[in-house]
Specification:
single chain, 229 residues, alpha/beta, Rossmann fold, Arc Repressor Mutant, subunit A, five-stranded parallel beta sheet, four-stranded antiparallel beta sheet, 8 helices, 11 strands, 41% helix, elongated
Length: 229
Amino acid sequence: MSAAQPCVLVVEDEAAQREVLVYNLEAEGFEVVMADSGDDALLVFEEAQPDVVVLDWMLPGVSGIELCRRLKSSPKTRGTPIIMLTARGEEADRVRGLEIGADDYVVKPYSVIELMARVRTQLRRARPSTVGEMLEFEDIVLDAGTHRVKRNGRELKLGPTEFRLLATLMEKPGRVWSREQLLDRVWGRDIYVDTRTVDVHIGRLRKALCRDGGTDPVRTVRGAGYALG
């Protein structure tokens, strides 16, 4: 079973533009969820918890700039990268978008190849393990490119599920992940697995991490889930 694909939320009210974006993002291997208005986007965001948002400036109802402001003002959503799409090329508009928290800004008409590169750049920040990055936490080093983990210089033997769990925890040390969030991220959104399965694999991960000594870096947060550190 592979890890859940990185998820991109496309917020675009023009159907033709939306189809082009979805086609190319799916061809890049991303899971794509869509919304055609700002109000709809807020609901989809809550349900899908995307890793990156591609957001059109001009939307019916809640505007793209207002949606960006709302997402960036909430502690729960401010860490999600937002790429703004707009026909507005004026420098003042671009500065306004960046000032309210947009992470990148692409002016229409844009190069699809360039936009895909920008999505990957933002994804590297949001989910570094999916783009082969090296992750480090204290004496643990995870190489997402070669699927190897070392602790204090010694290589650890992890099953594929334990590897994906550790990669998720190491992407955001200190963040508390609920069992449901870990199921979505590690097993995938469309697969039913009992939440107790998470506890079993966390137990295996802890055993592997502590096999040669060292403290247990995985913290159980009662009633909430798990965190690293």
